[in-house]
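Data deposition worksheet. Section B asks for the primary sequence of the deposited chain exactly as it was used as input, without tags or linkers unless they were present during the calculation. Section C holds the resulting structure in token form. Section D is free text for depositor observations; keep each observation to a single sentence. Incomplete worksheets are returned to the depositor.
Section A, Depositor: J.P.
Section B:
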Amino acid sequence: MFHAMVHTSDLKSVEAALAKAELFAAISAAGRTRLAKAGTPCAVEPRALLFAKGDTGDALYVLLEGEVEVRVTNEAGRDVRLAALKPFAVIGEMAVIDGGARSADVCAIRRSRFLRIARETALQTLESEPKALLKLISELSGRIRRANAGIEDAQLLDLGGRLAQRLLEEAGDGAAITLTQTELARRIGASREKVNRKLHEWEDEGWVSLGRSGIKLTKRAELVALIARDRAD
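Section C:
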């Protein structure tokens, strides 16, 4: 991890980044200025960790540029991706708030820049900004809801259901998925071989198209129906 001083010329861009971050958007402009001045910029190279599970929660980070993944290692020793974060995500605030250890690894997908804000500074600012505290509570509640939904899906959906759901989420309103089969497997906690076999089954049925450029959804309705059947069983 590389560190540098905050230059005066960068101050406005850092403040703008904080204003776009979900938590800090609720902080006053004066509060964001204080945080920007107190923060330390840093960068992490691809495949390097910002922090690891079990590390002390001594700071939170605002992702200014790049992309990171939040991941844990399952019992089989396989990395399972919990989330992908893009600018201007706030990272590591849970451990900062409760003073506990980090609950997951955060790894850079590509070179990423952050503003590191020490725990003491963050807590002092939050204590003086009631709206930001309410925003934090709302965000943490949302994360709990999403985590509960993920646990429910893991119990209700088989591999096909989980894969179908991930494909639909990655495609969004479009039809193309550029993730590799290895990455898809990581995101649903399965082996690449099983994912490959399932995708080829769906290709034979005309649900997806596989090519060098990635995966294309050709029958979204069939994937949606598959998920619904899994949930109903």
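Section D:
The CA atoms of residues 41 and 115 lie 4 Å apart.
The mean pLDDT is 85.
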